[in-house]
Amino acid sequence: MNKTIYIFFFLLSTISHEAFAQCDSTASYAAQYMQKNFVSDGQSYRALLFDDQVAEFNTTFYGGSKYRIVAFAGMEKNQLQFSLYDQDGNQLFSNKEHENSNHWDFEFKDTMEGRIEARLDLTKQKSGCAVLLIGFER
Q1: Cα(19)–Cα(27) distance, rounded to whole angstroms?
Q2: Does the UniProt entry include the keyword Signal (predicted)?
Q3: Domain count of the chain?
Q4: How far apart are CA 83 and CA 115, in angstroms?
Q5: How far is CA 46 from the centre of its chain?
Q6: pLDDT value of residue 7
Q7: Rounded Cα distance, 109 and 103, in Å
Q8: Phi (first) and psi of residue 6, to 5 degrees
Q9: How far is CA 30 from CA 63, 87, 94, 106, in A?
Q10: Phi, psi of 13 (to 5 degrees)
Q11: Could you report the per-residue pLDDT of 24-36, keeping only the tens digit for each?
């Protein structure tokens, strides 16, 4: 019985390590779309997604600032769909309406609490690490 438990934990540890490595690789790849004039907000927005799961990320956007959201779920473009909602649940943007664009720039007149929902485009990928980078313009 103990041998089975050790094997289970070894396999779980190996799978977990590979998932984190995939997220790190995806984040490094996505960083090239942040460009020099945008500075990261310092947060890590990552989620391992399978099938039709949805990841939710909450953040604050400050008024008078320009932001860039970069979204990837692997090393290929256009595999992750993301939508931005205001604090009342109103959809402000969906990259699905723009061929799953992997990045988009936003300007906010007023400070607002925002929610970003991310999901895989199941026609392109069934599982992957969703990585969002949010940066503000210098």
Answers
A1: 12
A2: yes
A3: 1
A4: 8
A5: 5
A6: 55
A7: 20
A8: -60, -40
A9: 25, 27, 18, 18
A10: -65, -40
A11: 888 888 888 887 8
113 token code pair: 């609490």
CA 27, 30, 36, 40 dihedral sign is negative
Q: Of the candidates 56, 72, 70, which has an alpha carbon nearest to the alpha carbon of residue 114?
A: 56
Assign residue 98 the CATH number of its domain: 2.60.120.380
> Model's pTM, two decimal places?
0.81
Beta bridge partners, 59, equal 114
Tokens of 102: 């992997």
Q: Are 127 and 120 in contact (CB under 8 A)?
A: yes
For residues 122 and 76, is the Cβ–Cβ distance under 8 A? no
Q: Which residue range forms the structural domain that includes residue 115?
A: 2-137
The structure tokens listed for 80 are 């992750």
Residue environment code for 96-106, b if the CB has 16+ CB neighbours within 10 A, otherwise e: eeeebbbbbeb
